[in-house]
Every structure is written in C-alpha cells, then in structure tokens.
C-alpha cells in the first residue's frame, strides 16, 4: 500500500542476513517511523513491544528474526534458541508458531553453511506468500461485498464494520479484513467503513483509520460500544474482522470485543465475516474457548491513554484513579455459530470443520 505516494510493505528485507525494515506502529498515527532490525533480539522486542503486531506480520517478523540469527550462528542450538525466544514474545497469534515451525523444518535439514542464505530466502517467501494470500482473500471477499451491493439500490453506500486493525499494517500487505474493502473501493464500489476504536491500544483509531485515510477509503471512527446501536438501526450491512487463531472447527480468536460485535450482528441479522490466511488456522485446537491462550497485558494500557496534543506533542494521560485495580485481556473467542463464513485465500467457507476441511483437505486430514 502507499504512504504519502510511496509503496510500502509492513516489513521488508534490506541487506541479506543483516537488516530488515519495519514501521514502528507504536508511533502511528502521529509519526511514520521506519526502524531497522539487526538481531534476533531486535525482532523479539519488535513483536513483544508491538512495534509490529497483527497475526500474519508477527509470523513474518519471526521468520526474519530466525534469518538474522542464522547469519550470526547457524548451529542447531542457535536455531532452537531463536525458536524459543521468538515464541515467547506473544501467546495468542498462531502465525508465530506456524512461521517458526516452518523455518525450523526447512533449516534443520540443511548443512550449517547453507542455513543463513536459505533462512533469508524462506523469510522473504513467507512474506511474499502472505501478500498473495491476502490479495486472494480480497478477491473472494469482494464477491461477498458485491452480493450485498446487489441487494441495495444502485448508488447506495455499503457500510462495513471492522474491529481492531486487520489491515495491511497487520499483515505484510493488503490486510485480511481490509483486503476485500480495498478491492471493493479500487473497483469503484461505494464502501464506507465503521472503524471501532479498539480500546485499550486503539488499533482502530491509530492504525485502521490511518490506513483507510491514506488509501482514500471513506470511514468513520466510533467508540467500541457503538457497533450494536448501529446494527439495530440498519447502519451496518456487514462486518469483516481478522483473527489471531481460528480453530479446526471454525471458532475465531481475535481482538477483545470481537465477540460482542458478533453477538450484536447475530441478533440483528448482519452478516459477520472473518478473513484469514490459512497460516492462522490452528488445526490442533478443537475448542477455542478452552484451548486458546488469551494474552493478558499490563493494566497500564487500560489506565493510561496516549494521544497528540494541539501543540503536536504525543503525551500520555491517566484516565482513572491511580489505585484502581485493572484488567486487560487482549483477545476473546467468538464461537463459530456466530460467524457467517470464513474468507480464506482458497475461497469462502462455513465456519466449521466440514467447511475448513473442504477448502484445506490436506491439512484437515493430516491432524
Ligand atoms: O494485539 P494486536 O494488535 O496484535 O491484535 C491484532 C488483531 O487482533 C487482528 O485483528 C488480528 O491479528 C488479525 S490481523 C490480520
């Protein structure tokens, strides 16, 4: 996607085995800051401290983290250590484990002297594959938006609600939930996006609103609790969200608050779609509610809110008494019964074991 007219991905190789470029997403929307990762530790910190975030981008960054480490020390011990260090950064997005397992199985079979080049090459491929998957998700999702447009009067706006940031910043490019939206907008469909602010880190306000604005997609920011009201009043034609981990049975774990949007959509007959590359499916998990580890983050994210002052300085302010006890669950699970369909790179399917197995028989049968 373009930023100030220049094409960007959210992560890009700079010098083979030495440096990787990323955007420090903690600075958006106030500043656009590029950062160079040079070591395994840099990659781990960038994921843990959320300079990069979003399930597919976490996976791609981990792959590059392994590649940086292989250039320093390609031994088995170093490969295992890189896997552990990166895997410990964040618990919920399955793309992290997926990318690390992919890198390890590709590298562990090779002689040491070939590992650095192969790791760099494979990390680039993982990034490119993510872009291709998301572009394909966009094409499949576009058909769903077109179907909804066909039910409306010509010239009517199609209102789409999204939660958190499942945009190009959360992937390597295109985004998952935003890819159908970008495809529809690029094709000239009159789309408008309701953007949930997504407390406490405000990925909707800071990232999704910024992305859509850069691309010229009409959108409106709203507080997290407003979605249900909009749906009750016919102001949402469909919801599209991303996911950090989808079970083999179609349960969807995504940013906290997704479940409440799905409930409101169900109650109001609004289609609720989840867009995902297959790297986000955890084929080993059957019951999303019981088996997916939900990240619990520090309470300071709830107590303190950061923003730009009228003078252009970025400042933090506390919004509750200093002694207030705090809770900060970062994700929730939406049971498959509330998901209208999953949009994947291979097509649209029911959020169920049968639906997923129909599109990915080789994976479903292997587990
Ligand atoms: O905590 P974050 O910002 O990493 O959470 C991101 C999300 O919840 C996204 O919706 C999800 O990773 C899907 S990204 C295509």
Automatic annotation (TrEMBL):
<dbReference type="Pfam" id="PF01008">
    <property type="entry name" value="IF-2B"/>
</dbReference>
<feature type="binding site">
    <location>
        <position position="90"/>
    </location>
    <ligand>
        <name>substrate</name>
    </ligand>
</feature>
<keyword id="KW-0413">Isomerase</keyword>
<feature type="site" description="Transition state stabilizer">
    <location>
        <position position="164"/>
    </location>
</feature>
<comment type="similarity">
    <text>Belongs to the EIF-2B alpha/beta/delta subunits family. MtnA subfamily.</text>
</comment>
<dbReference type="InterPro" id="IPR000649">
    <property type="entry name" value="IF-2B-related"/>
</dbReference>
<feature type="active site" description="Proton donor">
    <location>
        <position position="244"/>
    </location>
</feature>
<dbReference type="InterPro" id="IPR005251">
    <property type="entry name" value="IF-M1Pi"/>
</dbReference>
<keyword id="KW-0028">Amino-acid biosynthesis</keyword>
<dbReference type="InterPro" id="IPR011559">
    <property type="entry name" value="Initiation_fac_2B_a/b/d"/>
</dbReference>
<feature type="binding site">
    <location>
        <begin position="53"/>
        <end position="55"/>
    </location>
    <ligand>
        <name>substrate</name>
    </ligand>
</feature>
<dbReference type="InterPro" id="IPR037171">
    <property type="entry name" value="NagB/RpiA_transferase-like"/>
</dbReference>
<feature type="binding site">
    <location>
        <position position="203"/>
    </location>
    <ligand>
        <name>substrate</name>
    </ligand>
</feature>
<dbReference type="InterPro" id="IPR042529">
    <property type="entry name" value="IF_2B-like_C"/>
</dbReference>
<dbReference type="GO" id="GO:0046523">
    <property type="term" value="F:S-methyl-5-thioribose-1-phosphate isomerase activity"/>
</dbReference>
<keyword id="KW-0486">Methionine biosynthesis</keyword>
<comment type="pathway">
    <text>Amino-acid biosynthesis; L-methionine biosynthesis via salvage pathway; L-methionine from S-methyl-5-thio-alpha-D-ribose 1-phosphate: step 1/6.</text>
</comment>
<comment type="function">
    <text>Catalyzes the interconversion of methylthioribose-1-phosphate (MTR-1-P) into methylthioribulose-1-phosphate (MTRu-1-P). Also catalyzes the interconversion of 5-deoxyribose 1-phosphate and 5-deoxyribulose 1-phosphate. Part of a bifunctional DHAP-shunt salvage pathway for SAM by-products.</text>
</comment>
<feature type="binding site">
    <location>
        <begin position="254"/>
        <end position="255"/>
    </location>
    <ligand>
        <name>substrate</name>
    </ligand>
</feature>
<dbReference type="GO" id="GO:0019509">
    <property type="term" value="P:L-methionine salvage from methylthioadenosine"/>
</dbReference>
<dbReference type="InterPro" id="IPR027363">
    <property type="entry name" value="M1Pi_N"/>
</dbReference>
<protein>
    <recommendedName>
        <fullName>Methylthioribose-1-phosphate isomerase</fullName>
        <ecNumber>5.3.1.23</ecNumber>
    </recommendedName>
</protein>
